[in-house]
Protein backbone atom coordinates (compact mmCIF):
# COMPACT_ATOMS: atom_id res chain seq x y z
CA UNK A 1 0.00 0.00 0.00
CA UNK A 2 1.26 3.47 -0.89
CA UNK A 3 2.48 5.34 2.24
CA UNK A 4 0.62 8.46 3.21
CA UNK A 5 3.96 10.27 3.50
CA UNK A 6 7.58 9.50 2.68
CA UNK A 7 10.55 11.83 3.03
CA UNK A 8 14.25 11.36 2.31
CA UNK A 9 16.77 13.88 3.63
CA UNK A 10 14.01 16.48 3.64
CA UNK A 11 14.94 19.95 4.85
CA UNK A 12 13.68 23.51 4.84
CA UNK A 13 15.94 26.46 5.57
CA UNK A 14 15.10 30.05 6.44
CA UNK A 15 18.26 32.05 5.95
CA UNK A 16 20.93 30.21 7.94
CA UNK A 17 18.45 28.39 10.18
CA UNK A 18 17.15 24.94 9.31
CA UNK A 19 13.55 24.60 10.50
CA UNK A 20 13.64 20.97 9.35
CA UNK A 21 16.79 19.02 8.57
CA UNK A 22 17.69 15.56 7.25
CA UNK A 23 14.13 14.34 7.76
CA UNK A 24 13.77 10.74 6.63
CA UNK A 25 10.48 9.12 7.60
CA UNK A 26 7.83 6.76 6.22
CA UNK A 27 4.25 6.79 7.51
CA UNK A 28 2.01 3.95 6.27
CA UNK A 29 -1.38 4.70 4.74
CA UNK A 30 -4.51 4.19 6.79
CA UNK A 31 -2.95 5.61 9.94
CA UNK A 32 -3.92 8.43 12.24
CA UNK A 33 -0.39 9.66 12.81
CA UNK A 34 0.57 12.13 15.52
CA UNK A 35 3.39 14.59 14.93
CA UNK A 36 4.71 15.84 18.25
CA UNK A 37 7.52 18.12 19.35
CA UNK A 38 8.26 21.33 21.18
CA UNK A 39 7.55 24.73 19.63
CA UNK A 40 10.01 25.26 16.80
CA UNK A 41 10.70 21.55 16.37
CA UNK A 42 9.63 21.58 12.72
CA UNK A 43 6.05 20.22 12.91
CA UNK A 44 4.38 23.04 10.99
CA UNK A 45 7.19 23.08 8.44
CA UNK A 46 6.81 19.36 7.72
CA UNK A 47 3.04 19.70 7.30
CA UNK A 48 3.41 22.73 5.02
CA UNK A 49 5.91 20.81 2.87
CA UNK A 50 3.51 17.86 2.71
CA UNK A 51 0.67 20.19 1.71
CA UNK A 52 2.72 21.78 -1.06
CA UNK A 53 2.65 25.16 0.68
CA UNK A 54 6.45 25.21 0.90
CA UNK A 55 9.21 23.95 -1.37
CA UNK A 56 12.03 21.87 0.15
CA UNK A 57 15.48 23.37 0.54
CA UNK A 58 16.90 19.85 0.47
CA UNK A 59 15.69 16.31 -0.01
CA UNK A 60 12.42 14.88 -1.29
CA UNK A 61 8.89 14.42 0.00
CA UNK A 62 6.14 12.26 -1.46
CA UNK A 63 2.49 12.36 -0.41
CA UNK A 64 0.30 9.39 -1.36
CA UNK A 65 3.13 8.31 -3.65
CA UNK A 66 3.56 11.57 -5.59
CA UNK A 67 4.87 15.10 -5.29
CA UNK A 68 2.56 17.22 -3.10
CA UNK A 69 1.58 19.44 -6.04
CA UNK A 70 0.18 16.41 -7.87
CA UNK A 71 -2.05 15.43 -4.94
CA UNK A 72 -3.71 18.75 -4.08
CA UNK A 73 -7.21 17.47 -4.85
CA UNK A 74 -6.78 14.53 -2.48
CA UNK A 75 -5.11 16.33 0.44
CA UNK A 76 -6.83 18.70 2.87
CA UNK A 77 -4.74 20.99 5.07
CA UNK A 78 -6.07 22.82 8.12
CA UNK A 79 -3.44 25.23 9.41
CA UNK A 80 -2.86 26.12 13.04
CA UNK A 81 -4.99 29.27 13.12
CA UNK A 82 -7.96 27.64 11.29
CA UNK A 83 -7.66 30.12 8.40
CA UNK A 84 -11.06 31.40 7.31
CA UNK A 85 -12.28 34.56 5.63
CA UNK A 86 -13.55 36.73 8.46
CA UNK A 87 -15.95 38.63 6.21
CA UNK A 88 -17.58 35.54 4.68
CA UNK A 89 -20.52 33.77 6.26
CA UNK A 90 -20.62 30.05 7.05
CA UNK A 91 -22.80 29.47 3.99
CA UNK A 92 -20.42 31.44 1.79
CA UNK A 93 -17.51 29.32 2.98
CA UNK A 94 -19.42 26.19 1.95
CA UNK A 95 -20.21 27.63 -1.48
CA UNK A 96 -16.55 28.58 -1.94
CA UNK A 97 -15.50 25.06 -0.97
CA UNK A 98 -17.85 23.63 -3.58
CA UNK A 99 -16.33 25.82 -6.30
CA UNK A 100 -12.73 24.99 -5.43
CA UNK A 101 -12.93 21.24 -4.80
CA UNK A 102 -14.06 18.72 -7.46
CA UNK A 103 -14.90 16.03 -4.88
CA UNK A 104 -16.87 18.38 -2.63
CA UNK A 105 -19.65 16.75 -0.57
CA UNK A 106 -22.23 19.53 -0.18
CA UNK A 107 -24.75 17.37 1.67
CA UNK A 108 -22.16 16.37 4.26
CA UNK A 109 -21.01 19.97 4.76
CA UNK A 110 -24.55 21.26 5.26
CA UNK A 111 -25.50 18.42 7.59
CA UNK A 112 -22.40 18.86 9.71
CA UNK A 113 -22.72 22.63 10.11
CA UNK A 114 -26.40 22.16 11.01
CA UNK A 115 -25.53 19.52 13.60
CA UNK A 116 -22.92 21.84 15.11
CA UNK A 117 -25.41 24.69 15.27
CA UNK A 118 -23.36 26.96 13.00
CA UNK A 119 -25.64 29.74 11.74
CA UNK A 120 -25.25 29.83 7.92
CA UNK A 121 -25.66 33.62 7.96
CA UNK A 122 -23.03 34.26 10.63
CA UNK A 123 -19.69 35.66 9.48
CA UNK A 124 -16.61 33.63 10.34
CA UNK A 125 -15.08 36.60 12.16
CA UNK A 126 -17.95 36.46 14.67
CA UNK A 127 -17.58 32.76 15.48
CA UNK A 128 -15.94 31.49 18.66
CA UNK A 129 -12.56 29.76 18.49
CA UNK A 130 -14.19 26.36 18.78
CA UNK A 131 -16.73 27.17 16.07
CA UNK A 132 -14.00 28.38 13.72
CA UNK A 133 -12.03 25.19 14.29
CA UNK A 134 -15.09 23.07 13.60
CA UNK A 135 -15.91 25.02 10.43
CA UNK A 136 -12.32 24.62 9.21
CA UNK A 137 -12.50 20.87 9.91
CA UNK A 138 -15.82 20.69 8.05
CA UNK A 139 -14.24 22.35 5.00
CA UNK A 140 -11.39 19.88 5.12
CA UNK A 141 -13.60 16.80 5.49
CA UNK A 142 -16.15 17.91 2.89
CA UNK A 143 -13.34 17.98 0.35
CA UNK A 144 -13.39 14.18 0.74
CA UNK A 145 -9.60 13.89 0.87
CA UNK A 146 -7.53 10.76 1.14
CA UNK A 147 -5.18 12.54 3.55
CA UNK A 148 -6.03 15.19 6.13
CA UNK A 149 -3.22 17.36 7.53
CA UNK A 150 -4.01 19.12 10.82
CA UNK A 151 -1.64 21.62 12.43
CA UNK A 152 -2.49 22.12 16.12
CA UNK A 153 -6.08 22.54 15.00
CA UNK A 154 -7.59 21.73 18.41
CA UNK A 155 -4.91 23.28 20.61
CA UNK A 156 -6.91 26.39 21.50
CA UNK A 157 -10.16 24.54 22.21
CA UNK A 158 -11.58 23.84 25.64
CA UNK A 159 -11.67 20.17 26.76
CA UNK A 160 -15.30 19.64 25.69
CA UNK A 161 -14.72 21.17 22.26
CA UNK A 162 -11.55 19.08 21.84
CA UNK A 163 -13.53 15.95 22.64
CA UNK A 164 -16.11 16.82 19.97
CA UNK A 165 -13.32 17.63 17.50
CA UNK A 166 -11.66 14.24 18.11
CA UNK A 167 -14.98 12.44 17.78
CA UNK A 168 -15.69 14.07 14.42
CA UNK A 169 -12.21 13.20 13.18
CA UNK A 170 -12.41 9.54 14.21
CA UNK A 171 -15.90 9.27 12.73
CA UNK A 172 -14.53 10.40 9.36
CA UNK A 173 -11.59 7.99 9.62
CA UNK A 174 -13.92 5.07 10.33
CA UNK A 175 -16.44 6.00 7.63
CA UNK A 176 -14.11 6.92 4.77
CA UNK A 177 -10.79 5.19 5.46
CA UNK A 178 -9.18 8.60 5.79
CA UNK A 179 -5.47 8.89 6.62
CA UNK A 180 -4.54 11.68 9.03
CA UNK A 181 -1.32 13.41 10.00
CA UNK A 182 -1.88 15.79 12.89
CA UNK A 183 0.57 17.96 14.78
CA UNK A 184 -0.09 18.55 18.45
CA UNK A 185 1.70 19.15 21.72
CA UNK A 186 -1.27 17.67 23.65
CA UNK A 187 0.02 14.15 24.22
CA UNK A 188 -3.19 13.04 25.95
CA UNK A 189 -5.16 13.89 22.80
CA UNK A 190 -2.68 11.98 20.63
CA UNK A 191 -3.00 8.96 22.90
CA UNK A 192 -6.78 8.95 22.43
CA UNK A 193 -6.65 9.55 18.69
CA UNK A 194 -3.49 8.22 17.05
CA UNK A 195 -2.05 4.82 16.25
CA UNK A 196 1.26 6.08 14.81
CA UNK A 197 3.77 8.55 16.23
CA UNK A 198 6.53 10.79 14.89
CA UNK A 199 8.62 12.76 17.40
CA UNK A 200 10.54 15.81 16.18
CA UNK A 201 13.21 17.69 18.12
CA UNK A 202 15.47 20.46 16.85
CA UNK A 203 14.14 20.00 13.33
CA UNK A 204 14.96 16.29 13.15
CA UNK A 205 12.99 13.06 13.45
CA UNK A 206 13.95 11.34 16.69
CA UNK A 207 11.64 8.33 16.50
CA UNK A 208 8.79 7.10 14.33
CA UNK A 209 6.55 4.04 14.40
CA UNK A 210 3.26 2.49 15.39
CA UNK A 211 2.51 3.47 18.98
CA UNK A 212 1.91 -0.08 20.23
CA UNK A 213 5.27 -1.20 18.82
CA UNK A 214 7.11 1.80 20.26
CA UNK A 215 5.68 1.29 23.74
CA UNK A 216 6.46 -2.43 23.64
CA UNK A 217 10.06 -1.73 22.60
CA UNK A 218 10.90 0.82 25.33
CA UNK A 219 11.49 0.18 29.01
CA UNK A 220 12.33 2.14 32.13
CA UNK A 221 15.35 0.71 33.94
CA UNK A 222 16.10 1.64 37.55
CA UNK A 223 19.00 0.26 39.50
CA UNK A 224 22.51 0.84 40.85
CA UNK A 225 24.38 3.74 39.26
CA UNK A 226 25.85 2.70 35.94
CA UNK A 227 27.47 4.26 32.90
CA UNK A 228 24.98 3.98 29.98
CA UNK A 229 27.86 2.97 27.75
CA UNK A 230 28.20 -0.30 29.63
CA UNK A 231 24.75 -1.60 28.66
CA UNK A 232 24.68 -4.60 26.32
CA UNK A 233 24.64 -4.06 22.58
CA UNK A 234 21.07 -3.73 21.39
CA UNK A 235 19.98 -1.66 24.39
CA UNK A 236 19.90 1.93 23.12
CA UNK A 237 19.71 4.55 25.86
CA UNK A 238 17.22 7.28 24.98
CA UNK A 239 17.49 9.25 28.23
CA UNK A 240 19.25 8.78 31.54
CA UNK A 241 19.60 10.46 34.91
CA UNK A 242 21.98 9.55 37.71
CA UNK A 243 21.95 10.12 41.45
CA UNK A 244 24.81 9.27 43.79
CA UNK A 245 24.00 5.58 43.85
CA UNK A 246 21.17 5.10 41.39
CA UNK A 247 20.54 5.36 37.67
CA UNK A 248 17.25 5.63 35.82
CA UNK A 249 17.23 5.12 32.06
CA UNK A 250 14.80 4.85 29.18
CA UNK A 251 16.08 2.25 26.74
CA UNK A 252 14.92 0.93 23.41
CA UNK A 253 15.44 -2.76 22.81
CA UNK A 254 13.86 -5.61 20.89
CA UNK A 255 15.00 -8.25 23.36
CA UNK A 256 14.42 -9.01 27.03
CA UNK A 257 16.26 -7.23 29.85
CA UNK A 258 18.16 -10.06 31.54
CA UNK A 259 20.30 -8.17 34.06
CA UNK A 260 18.79 -8.89 37.52
CA UNK A 261 20.21 -5.63 38.89
CA UNK A 262 17.60 -3.64 36.94
CA UNK A 263 14.04 -2.99 37.98
CA UNK A 264 12.22 -2.98 34.64
CA UNK A 265 9.11 -0.82 34.18
CA UNK A 266 6.78 0.14 31.37
CA UNK A 267 7.01 3.46 29.54
CA UNK A 268 3.87 5.48 28.83
CA UNK A 269 3.36 7.57 25.73
CA UNK A 270 4.02 10.88 27.47
CA UNK A 271 7.17 9.46 29.08
CA UNK A 272 8.34 8.25 25.67
CA UNK A 273 7.70 11.61 24.01
CA UNK A 274 9.47 13.56 26.76
CA UNK A 275 12.47 11.24 26.65
CA UNK A 276 12.97 11.77 22.93
CA UNK A 277 12.16 15.48 22.96
CA UNK A 278 14.40 16.56 25.79
CA UNK A 279 16.52 13.69 26.95
CA UNK A 280 14.89 13.91 30.38
CA UNK A 281 14.36 10.56 32.14
CA UNK A 282 10.89 9.17 32.57
CA UNK A 283 11.42 9.00 36.33
CA UNK A 284 13.96 10.63 38.60
CA UNK A 285 15.42 8.59 41.45
CA UNK A 286 14.31 9.79 44.86
CA UNK A 287 17.76 11.13 45.69
CA UNK A 288 17.81 13.18 42.50
CA UNK A 289 14.32 14.56 43.19
CA UNK A 290 15.40 15.59 46.67
CA UNK A 291 18.53 17.27 45.32
CA UNK A 292 16.48 19.25 42.80
CA UNK A 293 13.97 20.26 45.47
CA UNK A 294 16.84 21.45 47.73
CA UNK A 295 18.27 23.54 44.89
CA UNK A 296 14.86 25.11 44.22
TrEMBL record:
It comes from the Bacteria. Pfam families: ABC_tran. Keywords: ATP-binding, Nucleotide-binding, Transport. Gene3D superfamilies: P-loop containing nucleotide triphosphate hydrolases (3.40.50.300). Residues 5-227 form the ABC transporter domain. The keyword Transport applies. PROSITE patterns: ABC_TRANSPORTER_2. Signal peptide: none annotated. One of its GO terms (molecular function) is ATP binding. This is ABC transporter ATP-binding protein YtrB. It comes from Actinomadura rubteroloni. The lineage of its organism: Bacteria, Bacillati, Actinomycetota, Actinomycetes, Streptosporangiales.
Amino acid sequence: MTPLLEAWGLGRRYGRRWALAECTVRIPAGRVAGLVGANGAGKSTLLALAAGMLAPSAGTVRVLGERPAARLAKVAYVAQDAPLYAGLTVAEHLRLGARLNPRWDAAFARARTDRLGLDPARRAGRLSGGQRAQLALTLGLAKRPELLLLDESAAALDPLARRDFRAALLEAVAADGLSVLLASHLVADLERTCDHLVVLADGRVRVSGDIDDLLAGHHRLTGPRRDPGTLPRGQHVVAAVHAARQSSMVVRTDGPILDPAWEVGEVGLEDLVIAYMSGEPVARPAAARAKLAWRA
